[in-house]
Amino acid sequence: GIVLVAINPYEQLPIYEQDVIYAYSGQNMGDMDPHIFAVAEEAYKQMARDEKNQSIIVSGESGAGKTVSAKYAMRFFATVGGSASETNIEAKVLASSPIMEAIGNAKTTRNDNSSRFGKYIQIGFDKRYHIIGANMRTYLLEKSRVVFQAEDERNYHIFYQLCASASLPEFKDLGLSK
């Protein structure tokens, strides 16, 4: 399959704006510069042409920008599928896991708020290839980090938040004494 190597610039760049989405929409792979939108367009076209499910695997080290790349792909699908303004699918999908984000994020030597789990995001399309829904289906917590952490790293944020809240009256209701 297609492989795209992307680097997280740690800042907003104009290469992910609406006009760039429209520039890549309908193009063939290789006609334009390598881009997450080119990969998303190829998957979208193959889904429509072959009527088969498509997958985009986003992989990389901590802080590489995997979540950001997934957001851009979802934004592309929402825009070309005609549902960007109707559903704001990108925001809805990513907002659907605040509890997992609180439990599954930690401080690493490369990233102060690094996700410690894998996400499988499934986006559903109707027969006109418009987005009709999405969900996150699988979480792969790094269990090894519960009992071990590297020097200068911080374990899951939730542990520190719970310890800092132990004196609050609401804490008693959680049933987490001693």
UniProtKB/TrEMBL annotation:
One of its GO terms (molecular function) is actin filament binding. Pfam families: Myosin_head. Gene3D superfamilies: Kinesin motor domain (3.40.850.10). Keywords: Actin-binding, ATP-binding, Motor protein, Myosin, Nucleotide-binding. Coiled coil: none annotated. GO terms for biological process: actin filament organization. ATP binds at G60, E61, S62, G63, A64, G65, K66, T67. PROSITE patterns: MYOSIN_MOTOR. InterPro entries: Kinesin_motor_dom_sf, Myosin_head_motor_dom-like, P-loop_NTPase. One of its GO terms (cellular component) is myosin complex. Residues 1-178 form the Myosin motor domain. Belongs to the TRAFAC class myosin-kinesin ATPase superfamily. Myosin family. PANTHER family: MYOSIN, UNCONVENTIONAL MYOSIN-VB. This is MYO5B protein. The lineage of its organism: Eukaryota, Metazoa, Chordata, Craniata, Vertebrata.
